[in-house]
Amino acid sequence: MTVNLLNYSQPQLAEYFHGLGEKPFRAKQLMRWMHHFGVHDFDQMTDIAKSLRDKLKDQAEITPPGIKLEQISEDGTRKWLIDAGTGNGVETVFIPEAERGTLCVSSQVGCALECTFCSTGRQGFNRNLTVSEIIGQLWVANKALGRDPKGDRIISNVVMMGMGEPLANFDNVVTALNIMLDDSAYGLSRRRVTVSTSGMVPAMDRLRETCPVALAVSLHAPNDALRDVIVPINKKYPIKELMAACQRYLEKAPRDFVTFEYVMLDGVNDSVEHARQLLDIVRDVPCKFNLIPFNPFPNSGYDTSKPEAIRRFRDVLMQADYVVTTRKTRGDDIDAACGQLAGKVQDKTRRTERNKVMQVISVEKTV
Ligand code: SAH
Ligand code: SF4
Where are the strands (E) in the chain, listed by range? Predict the structure, then answer.
């Protein structure tokens, strides 16, 4: 059977070459060709002996995921709809900013965690993405974007904030993270790679031990009664346990704070009293806040908080000396703000999956 070498981290590739009776340094060479240079044709790998190249051509392949559609926004935001088979697509979005270029990467087709304000959660779980499909999003985007005149890659940061719950696809996500950090591949520092989780406590502990990248936690509510409803995993891992897990994580984290994401839902979680409760529950966790105006989708049952409510909420946090950012949506003209693209394509292919859309893709902006 042909193996797709994009599924392997460097140690796994070394193991593969060991099985072929080859030296481990071949793994490094191949990682560089695949990920550093973006080459998928073995014949272009000129420092690899022809006999080995022929063997590889027989047994292996380097196959990035297919692209169903690519769009470029007037503001420079770019979006790719990645083919996930059987009519499904997941989205990858590049968000350019003055000081960095961030790629927002998906980890699953759908999501099982059923957060009530999330369109991905509403449609249920389809399947985990493979390593090649996760790292393939970075591969595809890097290929399209290239490097700046100084030779640096345009993509400087990765956030696992696309479709799906990254920690529910733990092994594949960690392998993909390791490839992102590998100097022979993308060479990103741990602080430039962020995993966003809805709060899967045991997996947060595992991530801390295996690959402690920057952590963002989708908090969204300041008490268990409300969080149980809008982020149902809270029933399993309530706020107190989540905060303890954040503290444990910070012992290993590359940044000394956690980013708490907080979606602003009109009349649900956006009062001054909610902000005060929030200060209380996070008091032992060094953190910053990222307020996300709710991104509406059909029949969601929620509205976006009024700008005035967001300002008041933010002021309570800022008066307590926290750093607070609010997100500004980007790429509105290509629907990069709410992943409606995947929904549109789904409509044409499979009507029953018309809600297969990705949640907010947006960019942080200090207010
Ligand atoms: N599953 C992970 C990562 C993907 S979601 C998580 O939940 O953290 C990335 C962020 O977008 C999360 O904070 C998520 O709660 C938020 N989000 C989802 N749907 C949204 C919507 N309709 N409007 C605003 N933010 C949303
Ligand atoms: Fe899944 Fe995150 Fe959406 Fe919740 S917010 S349903 S965890 S993708």
Answer: 3-4, 60-61, 67-72, 78-83, 89-96, 101-104, 108-110, 125-128, 157-160, 193-197, 214-218, 258-264, 287-293, 324-329, 362-366
| pTM given for the model | 0.92
Ligand 2 pocket, residue 195 CB under 6 Å: no
Catalytically active residues, by annotation = 91, 338
The Å distance, Cα 360 to ligand 1 centre, comes to 7
CA dihedral 177, 182, 184, 186 (to 10 degrees): 50
pLDDT tens, position by position, 6-35: 999 999 999 999 999 999 999 999 999 999
**Based on the number of CB atoms within 10 Å of its own CB, is 224 exposed (0-12), middle (13-18) or buried (19 or more)?**
middle
| Nearest CA residue ID for atom 2, ligand 2 | 165
Q: Give 307 Cα–ligand 2 centroid separation in angstroms.
A: 24
> Residue 36 gets which letter from DSSP?
I
103 strand-pairing partners = 94, 158
Q: Are 22 and 52 in contact (CB under 8 A)?
A: yes
pLDDT in tens, 199-234: 999 999 999 999 999 999 999 999 999 999 999 999
CB of residue 258 inside a 6 A radius of ligand 1: no
Output the residue whose Cα is nearest ligand 2's atom 4. 115
Residue 325 pairs in a beta bridge with 290, 366
CB-side neighbour CA atoms (13 Å) of 156: 10
Atom 5 in ligand 1: which residue has the minimum CA distance?
161
Which atom of ligand 2 is least distant from the CA of 218? 5
